[in-house]
Every structure is written in C-alpha cells, then in structure tokens.
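Fold in tokens:
===
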Amino acid sequence: MSRIGKSPIPVPSGVDVSIDGTKVSVKGPKGQLSWSLPEDLAIDRDGDQLVVTRPDDERRHRALHGMTRSLVANMVVGVSEGFSKELEIVGVGYRAQAQGPSKLELQVGFSHSVPVAAPDGVTFEVPTPNRIIVSGIDKQLVGQVAADIRKIRKPEPYKGKGIRYAGERVLRKAGKSAK
C-alpha cells in the first residue's frame, strides 16, 4: 500500500468538494479547481476527509495511487490557502517592474526589456525591484510560470547574476587563474 496514497486528505471548513463519477471539483474562498481521476481509482468522502482508493495492487494502480492523492490534496490547499513562489533578481541594473497584477516587465541585461504575461489564475507581485512573487491556486501552474521567468536569465556560475528562486544556492566556478 502506498504510504502517500493511503493517508487521508483533510478538508478544511469553507471548502466544498464534489465528486461526480471520475470528476472531482473543489471550491473554496480563493477559487475553484476541477480534475478528472484516472480510471479505476476512486475517492470517497469520510466526514471531513477524503480517501483515495485503488482496486488492486497492479503496478499501474500503485503508480497512480500516491500521485492522485497528492494532486487532490494540492487542489484542496490551493483553493483554501493558495500557493506562491518567490524569485530573486541578482545583478547590477537588473530589476522587475509590475504592470498590473498580471503583467511584469523585466530588465535583465538584454538591450530590451522582457515582458511577461501571467496566465489566468496567476498573479505577480513586486515588493522590491529585485523580488518577484508568483501566486495562484494551481500549484503546477504557479511552479511552471516561476520556472519560465527563471529561464529568461538563469543564474550564471561565475558572478551569480540572473533570476533565481529565493534561497536557491548557485554553485560558483573559479575564474581564470593567473600564471
């Protein structure tokens, strides 16, 4: 039995979960998410908890059991609390500027500024010119948008300039050594 898959998912108050066959919809104060379960897996409501069950110990069902539980748990947390990723910009003259909650303009060493538009359900916040906070209710989408922003100018190994996750440690290389 999967250690992750067998643990129940707590449903906080204010979150409404509806299960219609293989479709799971979660509605909360921050928004609404829905997802279709893989075939053969089932979700049962047990009071204020959700339990994911699988029909047998077939390899495919074991593989999907823990993943399904994690995705549904992320939906519940997303609509109740939300997710956020924080990015840091390191470099002289490198900065970010918010152009509303869903647009961002980055100046990261190119001859032009780089515009970034947020997909639906994701917002940007720029508390200081060298910090970006990406927020939303879909964990996968927030992580993907943060990764796409980081990809614009990855941290380079010699001076460490670029866009990185908050707290990310960049391995530095030694430069040329004089003879």
